[in-house]
Every structure is written in structure tokens, then in C-alpha cells.
């Protein structure tokens, strides 16, 4: 047989997490078609994605290189599985999947074999996601009549059994606000069912789809305003699973922009790279005025006042420290988002370990500023020593610390710049983050390079010792604030554990001050190691607390969709306990009596989304509105329409005026 003579392909290509190859069902007949499968086998515990990947992921793609006159049809997708990943739901395949494509052979083809080549790309995920791909080839013998390869007949038959079939009878789909109901044909009886939409943002993937009799229920995504339902309906009963193609009108759907529910969110502002760089620089400048940077401002001022010689070198070293930290944060953020993580600006502060270590750092710096720990003790560690030391190393360490503590703050102009950055290629995104760092370091750099500005600083003297001790207390205050953030993230037990770590740090400082010799140093080292161990102890996220503001509702995409479907105005506040800008806005504007009165008079529902810990729904809403971090304030008008974005710094009058607009 011809298929015995010459079906030849490269050996299966093995990547780090998968194995891929092309397989022909049989010979190629001129004027006919031959079915070719991409066999993709994932490592145990890993999965690839369907046509619509669900909440996260990317579908597998195949780019064909074919002889002249030949053509390739679309991928024929077997029925997918619903794959829960934490609070999200993906659609895809575990283990091995065969993706079929029909290759049309030209009628005039005269060769003895058909040479096929394809570039296959897929995203494969487990706890992390890895984009992979392979260049594949296959030589298919040409014959006068179809002939199947017996080695693969069963695999092709099994795969075709998993392809969706036409519905035997039409189904009925209807919506009421965000609720979707699918009435199955009477001829289809099943004990479980799930609808997989062919397009993204149709149904809330992670929501259950209960089946009661022949009625299947699902929840529509708030942004969905279509009038047709397209996808695959998978039915399960005793001993069998079947998939059916769905393409049906939705009864009760109002076509066009007036459809009930939330309309599509505004696209991320197309500000362009030059304007994004300008916004980033201005935002970095304003960060110097934010309260989250105040604890390290004292160290900067003291270093300039006490070490005027070599000021330019200090300025450059400080700037280098800021830029290195911003580059590391940006690189980590971009890499994690590329791997499918739902994170944004300030993502490291969503880690209780980072919060605990920062609290320890501020506490240790405060002890140093009170002269409880003397400069130069080796056991205090290089990290803290950098921030205490004079000269270039001290300025570099101060720059690192300034950048780290600036991340809880979002200044005006920053939101648009960072939101734009995370939609651009990595090189442009890194450039925007670096310019943000330049803005943060610019005042210190300017003073160090302009002698006239440096001469405005007071002369060194005894006042510096008193000021240093006074400024220790803002550092202690920052440590207390971080402990409160920790309580919001993981609860009271974590605060007690962190308090034990602070006690160990204080004990280490006491031992170093009162006892000399190797024995005292070893005891202090043991205490510091114990403090570090308390910071990295695993903790569980605290249960979601009710919003602090009276009358506020906790944000959920489903609840927002219901309110929008009813035409109710909604004010959404996305915040976090570690975001100082958010907390200031709540104190000076959102929690004020005039704002509460305006919410009540206009019938506006106030929703609070807490991003202290990671929340994919909140991250998705931020991304939809062109932002990478909190705060974000949205006013959804009555009767529908796109939300209005408020500035990142609020006043009581601004919020009241915005709520009063028709």
C-alpha cells in the first residue's frame, strides 16, 4: 500500500513540557483532501487550551506551509474540559489531544508525495504557564484512491467522536439581565451539561451551570451585549459524553449599545509612547510628595546635609538604586503577566512575607536612628547597612528603599502611563518604568548636581542628632501601618507572629549594645534568624471583610452586572490596605458626610473592591479600564453607558459634583 511506502515525518518534537508531531490519516489524493492531526501531548498535570481558553490562556495555533495550490482548513476542535484553576476556569485539554485539519490537495498535483510543514504554538500551564512551540514537517504519499494508515485509524476515529455534532433540534436561549437560560431539545436528556462559548467574554466561566430537567442556567459576562449564542454544548449521562454545535438567537437580548447589563468598558487610553514617558516622569516627581515615601526622605536629607563632598556621586548612586529597583519590579511584573498571572502595580505588597520583611526593615532603621544599634555592626546585615552608610553605597541603598516604599502610592499621571506600559512590548514597558524611576530620583539628583541648591540646606551640627532621633518615629509608624496591612491580609495570628519577630529584633539590638564578644554576636544572629523565620511562615488569607464605609457593598462582577441591567448607577472604589493613596482618598473624600449624602440622594450603589490580596476579578476590571494598579474610581451612570473614570487624587467636592451629574 502507498501509505506503507512513504509516510515520513520528523520524529516527535519534545519541548520542556509537551511532545508534538504531525500525523496523516492516509494517502493524499489529487483533487481530494487528507486529514492531518497535530498530536499534542502535555506532561502529567499540565494542560493546553481550546479555541476559547476561558478566563486565562491562549488557544493553540497552526501556521501551515504548503505546496502551491494546496490549502488548509480550520482546526477541528474536540470537545474541551472545564479546568478549574483557583477562582478561575479554563477550557482546554489535559494529557494528549489530536487537533485535526483538512488539507486540500490540488487536482493537478503530479508529485509522488506531498510535503507539509507547520509551525505550531501553544500555551501550556500547570501552576505556571509556559509558551511553547515547534516547527513540524510531514511527507504524505500520493495515491489514486484514499487509503488509511491502520496504525492511526483508531486515534482518528476517537478524535472524530469528540467533535461537536449538529443539534438534532433547535434549542432556545434567553436572557434576563445577566442570567442566561438554555432550554435543551426534548430529545436530549442528560444528567449534566455545560455550555462552552466559542468567543471570550460571553459567560462567566467560573460560575456553575446547573441543569434542572432540560433547563441549563449560566451567568453572562457583564460586558456581553450580543444577540446570538455560539459555541459547544457538552452533555453527560450514564456512560457517554456528547458535544453539539450551538448557534442560536438569544430571546430577550436588546441588540446594540442599549443592551441590558454593562456595556463594553472603554479601551485603554491610546496616549502613545512619548506622552506615556512624560506622564511617567511627572508621576515619579509627584511620588516624592506622597506619604509613603516620607520615611526615607529623612535619610536622604541627612545624607546630603552631612556629606556635601562628593554630592554628585551620591546623586548618581541614589538614582542608580532607584532605577535598579524599578527595573527589577517591572521585569518581574511583565514576566508574571506574560505567564498568565493576574497582577498589577504594587503586586509584591500582596505578599504577606514582603509586608512582614518591610515592617522589620523599618523597625530596624528606627532603632538605628535612635542610636540603639550603632553603625558598623556586622550582624545588622548588608541590606540595612546600605541604607545607613554614607557615601555611594549608602546613597544606592537609600535609592533602593525609596523605590520599594513608593510602590504603595499612585500619583497623578502614573495610572495612565503604567496602564499603557503593560499593553506594550517589553522594551517600551521597561522604558516607561525607568522614566518613572528617573522622576522619583530627579529632585535628589538635581540638588546633588546644583551647588546653589545644596547650599540652601542647613550646615551640619548637633541638630542632626536630634532630628535623626525624631525622624525615627515616622519609621516606627510605618512599621505599625504595615502590621495593620498584615492583619487585613492574613488575620490577627499573623500580626502576633510578626510582633514576635519585632521582639526578636529588639532583643538582638539589646544584646549587641550591652554584650560584646563572639557570644553576644551569635545570640544576636540567632535572634535575627528567628525574626526572619517568623516573616516567612506560611499564612492563610484573611476572610473577606465587609467594606469599611457604611452602606457599601463588596465588589463582584456578577452583582455589578445585575445593577447595570437594572439601570442603577454604581460607584466603584478599587482599593487596598497597603495603598496609602487609597486610604488618604477615603479619609478626605469618600467617607465624608457630603459624599454619603450624595450617594443616597442619587440612588447610587457604592461598591468597594479590596485588592489587598490578589483578586483576578479586580485585576480584570483594572485592565479593562487601562490601569495596572489601585486606586481606581469608576462611576457607572444610570440607564447604561461607559463608566466615568475619576482622578486618582480625590476631593470631597469633586466626588459630590461627579455624582450629581445627570
UniProtKB/TrEMBL annotation:
Membrane in keyword set: yes
Superkingdom per UniProt: Bacteria
Transmembrane residue ranges: 271-294, 315-337, 349-370, 391-423, 429-450, 470-486, 492-512, 519-537
Main localisation: membrane
Leader sequence residues: none
GO biological process terms, semicolon-separated: cell redox homeostasis; cytochrome complex assembly
Matches recorded under InterPro entries: Cyt_c_assmbl_TM_dom (IPR003834), DsbD_gamma (IPR035671), DsbDN (IPR028250), Thioredoxin-like_sf (IPR036249)
GO cellular component, one term: membrane
UniProt KW Transcription keyword: no
Domain Cytochrome C biogenesis protein transmembrane, residue spans: 276-483
Cell compartment(s), UniProt: Membrane
Membrane topology per record: Multi-pass membrane protein
Keywords (A to Z) from UniProt: Cytochrome c-type biogenesis, Membrane, Transmembrane, Transmembrane helix
Pfam family, one: DsbD_TM
Database matches in SUPFAM superfamilies: Thioredoxin-like
Protein name per the record: Thiol:disulfide interchange protein
Gene3D superfamilies cross-referenced by the UniProt entry: Glutaredoxin (3.40.30.10)
A GO molecular-function descriptor: protein-disulfide reductase activity
Domain Thiol:disulfide interchange protein DsbD N-terminal residues, every copy: 21-139
